[in-house]
Structures are given as structure tokens and as C-alpha cells.
Amino acid sequence: MAQGRGAGRCPMGVRVVSLSAVSDSGPFIHLHQIGLFDLLTLFDRLVTSKQVMAEIMRPERVAEDCISNLVNLEVCPVASENITAMRKRLVGFDLQEGELSALWLCCHLKIKLLLTDDLEARRAAKFLGLEPHGSVGVIVLAYRMGKLSLTQSKEALYNLLDKSSLFLTPAIVEQAIQFLEQLEVGSPE
After folding, report:
1. Quick check: helix, strand or coil at residue 151?
2. How many CA atoms within 13 Å lie on the side-chain side of 149?
3. Bridge partners of 133?
4. Cα 72 to chain center, whole Å?
5. pLDDT at residue 14 in the model
6. Domains and CATH numbers, the chain
7. Which of 43, 75, 94, 164 is at a distance of 20 to 30 A from 7, taking alpha carbons?
8. 8 DSSP β-pair partners
9. Which range has the worst mean pLDDT, 9-13, 31-35, 69-73, 151-155?
10. Residue 2 has pLDDT above 80, yes or no
11. Residue in 38, 18, 21 with CA at minimum distance from that of residue 105
């Protein structure tokens, strides 16, 4: 997830790394379903659109108090003409307003990292030169940052498979676990 990072130096000469991302509804919903919504605080800046907020605030999706606790969250309006322009730019991709508005925000704000669990949105993001990652990627990031142990990360991945509405196959979960087992916590990419 390196492309979403911006680096700077604080006065003491210590390297400071900032992680920014734009998200569509998938990671909000799926991480909430498995009780790991707070992993979205790993990002210093998390941006989404009003269209995505409308999706995740529907009944039985994400509790309003969870959203209000995300101090790193910026909700931006995306005009319908910008969604239309993005739809024209992405002819041949089957995307809804939420995904289109998130992709537009990535391009407009020059944020390379898109959080999405939607396969078509991932394809569109790659087409636009963006770096897409989903809920699985957020769990891997949490492990790499030392926020989750290997055991907790494995449990989270199995919960995504068994307890969330995210379409995952056991093979994808096993592949992610093998990747985690090869990593050292906190190792650079």
C-alpha cells in the first residue's frame, strides 16, 4: 500500500509517514460486520463521498456512532456532473454512484489508494492508475503495523469469510494467511 503514503520530516529529523485513502462502501460495511471498524483509523486521512455515506448509513449497515468516532474521516460532496464524467471516462465498467464518486475523489484529490471490496471498482481503479485494496488489505496493513497479532489477523480473515456479506473464497483467505505468515510485523514493503 505504499503509493497512498506521503512522507515528510518533523523538526527532530524523524521520518513521518502519512497514509491517505479514499473508500467506497465495502470496507466500511464489511469491517463493521466483523467488529473491526476501528481498523479504518489506521489511515491518517480517510476520504469518502456523500454518495457512499448514503449507502453505508442504510438500516442494518453501519451504526451512526461508529461513523462519528472516525476522526480521520472526511466526507466530500461529489456533484452529479462529476459522476457522469467519471462514468464516461470508464465506459465498459459496470459501476454504481458510490464507486464512481470514490474513484472521482481519488483522481480529484490525487490520492492513489482506493479502498474497495468491489471487483469491478478494483479493475476501474487499476485502469486509472490507482492502487485498490479491500478489507483483506486493511487487515494485512493492521498486521504489518502491529495493530493485530497473527492470530487476530487470521481470525479476522476467517470472520470476513464466514460472518460478513463480502464474497470471498476459502482460497483467497488461505492465500492472505500464507502472505501474513511470511511477513515480519512492521517490515517495510
Report:
1. helix
2. 3
3. 115
4. 13
5. 45
6. 2-134 (3.40.50.1010), 137-182 (no CATH)
7. 75
8. 16
9. 9-13
10. no
11. 21
Provide, for the chain, the percentages of residues in helix, strand and coil under a 3-state DSSP scheme, each rounded to the nearest 5: 50, 15, 30
Report the number of secondary-structure helices (H) and strands (E) in the chain.
9, 6
The sign of the dihedral angle between the CA atoms of 66, 161, 135, 50 is: negative
**CA contacts within 13 A on the Cβ side of 39:** 31
Place of cell 471498482: 121
- Beta strand 73-76 pairing with 15-23: unpaired
pLDDT score at 184: 61
Provide the 8-state DSSP code for 147: S
Please return the burial class of 178, using the count of CB atoms within 10 Å of its CB with bins 0-12, 13-18 and 19+: exposed
Q: What is the pLDDT of residue 59?
A: 85
CA distance 31 to 136: 9
Q: How far apart are CA 23 and CA 49, in angstroms?
A: 8
Cell numbers placing 121: 471498482
